Amino acid sequence: MGPHPAVAAVRLAVRRSLHGLDRGDLVLAACSGGPDSLALAAAVAFEAPRAGLRAGGVVVDHGLQPDSAEVAASVIAVLAELGLAPALSVAVSVPGRGDPAGYHGPEAAARAARYAALDQAATETGARAVMLGHTLDDQAETVLLGLARGSGARSLAGMPASSGRYLRPLLGLRRAHTLAACDALGMRPWDDPQNGDPAFSRVRVRRDLLPALETALGPGVAEGLARTAQLLRADAAALDELAGRAADQIRAEEARRAAADGAADGAAAGWSATALAAQPAAIRHRILRAAALAAGCPAGALSARHIAGIDALVTGWHGQKWTDLPGGIRCERRYGRLHFTAAARSEDPGGRD
After folding, report:
1. Are strands 54-61 and 26-30 parallel, antiparallel or unpaired?
2. Domain 5-218's class?
3. At the topology level of CATH, where does 230-345 sit?
4. 166-167 and 322-325 as β-strands: parallel, antiparallel, unpaired?
5. Taking the C-alpha atoms of 6, 10, 11 and 15 in order, what is their torsion angle to the nearest 10 degrees?
């Protein structure tokens, strides 16, 4: 007899996600001990060696609960039993709401700390990829949260199946699959009490909003939201590519003009407000976002509201001073150009153009 259908589904998803890795590469399964990541870790342990890959695991201890170290140690033991090596635990410190990096709330702060820890683990072990246990349910929740926050197409596009070293093979599977897979394999997932805490917005979406939508609209809401994310991701990728080309063209034209004017480096500092204003809003907003990120703004904290504030310096200029951004970055308009600098360096009252 073959494996339980849920086990087979998770393994197949992992097998497909492993395509593109080279024999001998190390892949880490990020595991919290919950059903999604535990089912993922078991599938990675099964599939990676059959693909000629090395399989390891990593646990991030957020330190948010008194017994977090003990929980992390127990998960490491499970990973070792599955045959994952190395199996390592990384402890992190989660900043609070007042963190100077500009993260908004404990959920975003924990997420940022978690990815930093996973990056560290991948670098230290030489891992080619890190697999994450996000499911279709997580994707639907992400889309609803982005919709409620008015975060635009990029947020509504949800989480990508592949992003750099990160792979999310389970985005096509429901949470019920991972629960059933763990049960079939005789694994007992850890039930994180925070997953039931209504203080967290994602918990309220999971517990209250999605069930209410399915009651009102019928089954298939989560699948529909995931399809929406997939379609919007393709659109967002195309717009991002167009914005990148437009930014390159603006920079190239400015470099030619600067060189013609005798500038030593052949380029002018900042961004021309006139050149930016000539771009369609969807393209201009992406250029501004990329410029803010390049200046040091944390991606998770940079919202549509911040981009609108920058855009007002381009399209709604009336002598205003500047707009402050997450991460201690400030954007101000001086003599027709936008400049992104550390806030402490820009105390001029502005209003010049």
Report:
1. parallel
2. alpha beta
3. Chorismate Mutase Domain, subunit A (1.20.59)
4. unpaired
5. 150
Q: Which amino acid is at 286?
A: R
CB 223, CB 136: distance < 8 Å: yes
Would you list the domain boundaries of the chain? Answer: 5-218, 230-345
Tokens for 244, please give them: 């990148």
Q: Give the pLDDT confidence of 164-220 residue by residue, as tens digits.
A: 999 999 999 999 999 999 999 999 998 887 788 888 888 999 999 999 999 999 999
* Cβ pair 250, 277 in contact under 8 A: no
pLDDT of residue 147: 85
Beta bridge mates, 27: 55, 129
Distance between CA 71 and CA 86 in Å, rounded?
Answer: 18
Helix (H, G, I), strand (E, B) or coil at 222: helix
Task: Identify whether the C-beta of residue 29 lies closer than 8 Å to the C-beta of residue 37.
Answer: yes
Buried b / exposed e across 165-196, counting CB within 10 Å, b at 16+? Answer: bbbbbbbbbbbebbbbbbbbbebebbebebee
Instruction: Note the maximum CA span of the chain.
Output: 77
Structure tokens at 9: 């589904």
3-state secondary structure 28-65: EEECCCCHHHHHHHHHHHHHHHHCCCEEEEEEEECCCC
Q: Determine how many CB atoms are found less than 10 A away from the CB of residue 268.
A: 16
Domains 5-218 and 230-345 agree in fold: no
For residue 86, is the peptide bond before it cis, meaning its omega torsion is within 30 degrees of 0?
yes
Kindly report, residue by residue over 148-161, the tens digit of the pLDDT. Answer: 877 677 778 899 99
What is the total residue count of the chain? 353
